[in-house]
Each structure stands twice: as structure tokens, then as C-alpha cells.
Amino acid sequence: MASVAQTSSTENVITLRGSTDVVTDFFYYAVNSVLYQRGVYHPDGFAREAKYGITTLVTTDEALKKYLDNVIKQLKEWLLEKELQRLVLVIVGTDSGDTLERWTFNVHKEERPVLKDGSNAGDQQPRKSQKAITQEIQNVIRQITSSVTFLPLLDEPCSFDLLVYTGNDATVPSGWDDSDPRCIKDSSEVSLRSFSTKIHKVDTVVSYKNKTDEELC
């Protein structure tokens, strides 16, 4: 990732493009982790890869890789245009048609601080070390990995979809369509940790369908 310049005068300076690379990289590995941990795809279809100082799992399915690469490419454009608001991964039961889980990655633009003299610090490049950013992302990925300990068992075959929320001024390419938000009625929600590049802050929330008393028997 190209978010940290390597000269003494600009060490740890974060650029918009660098922050965009960090955020979209996270999206790629987070989505892969959810698909693996929640059993949406067979575990044999994933390979181990070292990332963020830990072992992650990424798909080896060529069709899925192509789909994710295309989505990530478009997310980069919307981030650079400052139009991306959130990415949502929905897991849907193929038999019931119900939305069982909704993983929401909210993107916030970090506010630049106001200096003591009252002037705006917007012209100053934000700074944060690569190590600090990596540690924060590692913590989020670890929580996704441990999600099997608190999320209900998915007891039917599942598929997934990615929903993207943007501002009104975003340019939407052909092939992208409006979608139902796939909300979950009577859901429970768990907030995971967030990470920040000093330009973007990403919060992760997972919502899941509650089991009824009858379903629990």
C-alpha cells in the first residue's frame, strides 16, 4: 500500500489516493474473510495469504475473484471522488430467500482539526504511521474471524450480494442497478472495531436474523 511516503520530510503523510488503497484493500480481505468464516463458499476454495501481519484467507475461484476485482475497482473511483458512503455484504439463504446477515462497512470522511489560532488545518497533510493503521485493520479482521463464536449458525445454503451506497453526485456506470436494501426484520446488531487513516474512518457493523423460540427448539 502506498499510503506512507518514505522521505524524512513526509514520513507517515497520508494522501487521498493512499488512503483509498488502504480502504479498498481492507474491503477485499474483509469480504473474503466473511465469505470463508460464514461458509458461503466451500473452505477448499480459499488459500492462505499473509496480510496485516496475520494469515488471511482469499478465494481461489476465478469467477468470484473477477467479480470482487471489478467491485473494488469501482469503489476506488467513488472513494477518490469522495462519494462512497458504505459497502454492505448481505448473506441470503438460498432456500428461504431471507437475508440472514448484513455486514455494513461505513465510510466516514475524517474532519480536519481547527488550529489554535482559529484557522483550518485543511491544507496540512494528515499523518499516521503504517504500523498503527495495520494494527487497527488487523484487529477488525481478527474480530471477523472470531464472528463464528457469536453469530447464529447458518443452517441452509447461502449466497451473497454486495450493495454500495454513494452520494447523489456519484457517476454510476452501466451494469450497476438500484437494489433493495435487504434489511433484516427483528435483527440483532454487533459493532466491531473501526480503523482510521486520518482521511477515512471505516466502522464495521454486522446485523443478523434472530432465531425465534420455535426455531431454537
UniProtKB/TrEMBL annotation:
<dbReference type="GO" id="GO:0000776">
    <property type="term" value="C:kinetochore"/>
</dbReference>
<dbReference type="InterPro" id="IPR045091">
    <property type="entry name" value="Mad2-like"/>
</dbReference>
<dbReference type="GO" id="GO:0007094">
    <property type="term" value="P:mitotic spindle assembly checkpoint signaling"/>
</dbReference>
<dbReference type="GO" id="GO:0051301">
    <property type="term" value="P:cell division"/>
</dbReference>
<comment type="similarity">
    <text>Belongs to the MAD2 family.</text>
</comment>
<feature type="domain" description="HORMA">
    <location>
        <begin position="17"/>
        <end position="206"/>
    </location>
</feature>
<keyword id="KW-0131">Cell cycle</keyword>
<dbReference type="InterPro" id="IPR036570">
    <property type="entry name" value="HORMA_dom_sf"/>
</dbReference>
<dbReference type="InterPro" id="IPR003511">
    <property type="entry name" value="HORMA_dom"/>
</dbReference>
<keyword id="KW-0539">Nucleus</keyword>
<dbReference type="GO" id="GO:0005737">
    <property type="term" value="C:cytoplasm"/>
</dbReference>
<keyword id="KW-0498">Mitosis</keyword>
<dbReference type="GO" id="GO:0005654">
    <property type="term" value="C:nucleoplasm"/>
</dbReference>
<protein>
    <submittedName>
        <fullName>HORMA domain protein</fullName>
    </submittedName>
</protein>
<dbReference type="Pfam" id="PF02301">
    <property type="entry name" value="HORMA"/>
</dbReference>
<keyword id="KW-0132">Cell division</keyword>
